[in-house]
Amino acid sequence: MRTKNRVAITGLGIVAPNGIGVDVFWGSILDGKSGIGPISLFDPVDFPVQIAGEVSNFDVRDYVDSNVKPKRMGRHTQLALAATRLAMREAELEIDDFQDGNAPALVMGVSSSAFDVIEQGKDRMASAGLRHVSPYVVSASQPNAISNVIAQHLGISSYTETISSACTAGLMAIGKGADLISSGKEQIVLAGGTDAPVTPFAVASFAASGMIPMRTDDPATASRPFDLYRSGGVMSEGACIVVLESLSHALARGVRPLALIRAHGVHQDEPGSEPASGLRESMASAVANAGLYPEDIDYICAHGPSDPIMDRVEMEAVKKVFGAHAYSTALSSIKGVTGNPLSAAGPMSLSACALAFRDGYLPPTANFTERDPECDLDCVPNQPRAASLRFALVNIHGMGGGNCTVALEKVPES
After folding, report:
1. Which of 85, 111, 211, 344 could cross-link with 238 by S-S, CB 3.0 to 4.6 Å?
2. pTM for this predicted structure
């Protein structure tokens, strides 16, 4: 793929159930320490599902100026604002760097509107009457509220875009951000995804759909990608924002990138097919767009949500794209410790992949106890593995049939 600029990842901002910040997040993945536990954001006593991945001990005011008013924002916006500041810190960027026409573009992914804002507004209307609904419900519940709040906080006026395509939204936002840089339209882009669906109505809705497991005896092991006894993906919340720059811009600032984005591919499932069937085409497109062959890929950070069907379909797709090479390519999922934070899931997997490039360790698949004969590829069970990576893929699948794959490359030594 010919591009004007190579796209570098220079900062990771992670607010996840298994940890806030790069070091805690990455350490928990390598240790297989789960962030899934009993729901505490509301009383789930009457709910069929009582576990989720929650971001603990979070207060957005710990990450931004004191003039921020959290009650005027949805929780997913608060998570994204904190993740943005963490990403900027990792990339050695300050708000003052964005003055004089140097403002970054913003591309944000969100699965849906702010569940908490809408539910609280409806409850307030029911209990106190029409005249007592907060005037901030409309602005706070819009999908683009995230980009709006971040832009206002940073004091910038720049290109902004909001992508809402279920779980694929965050990774698609990063792909769009990479396109803006590779085409020469932007030098810096803040991109990623955020969601906060741990609310009464959202949990009840997901439970009714049958997509999340009912077992609650051991929350820490409820999410078990590719394991024979997996029973569904665990709902979680979180935000992950990354700083993308042209490689020349990053090096001119004296910043060493974590990885390079080579290309991405997007594809819809075939009508009437099993969920995640389109991953075959999204992976093939990402590899082809990157100017690579399947044999060049050393590792796949899988979607792997712990779903009985989707985990199997993803491995089948890998076999179809990679052929015999599939059995010598490591593939793992981090959702055993993160759960599925919807549109933040793809950016978190991309972050784990970038950190694998940095440190030379593959993230393991946690809670793997017994192999499913239909999921027979190397899923790096339970323990991290030393590895020298050059090229890798990150997969994500979304409700409704969307799929996105990003191809990453190790930063050359010279």
Report:
1. 344
2. 0.96
